[in-house]
Amino acid sequence: MSKQLKSDIEFFVIMKIKEKRELAKLSQSDLAAKLDVSNGFIGQVESPKHPAKFNLNHINKLAEIFNCSPKDFLPDKAL
Questions:
Q1: Is 16 among the domain residues?
Q2: Cut 0.85: pTM above it
Q3: pLDDT tens digit string along 45-55?
């Protein structure tokens, strides 16, 4: 049995943020600069093969960057 590196809820949030990043036409490097993280961090988070994840401080800052609510990154119902 293989262990997932990211839970369903973590993967959902990551994909929502990736979708907003792409709609805003931001590269991973662009978003990394705005979020004040290393250039490779966004790619690591978006990769299902890497354990890196956004934390709540990242989520809050991303909501500022995308001019939305942090809850916009969450599903309507529990996964």
A1: yes
A2: yes
A3: 999 999 999 99
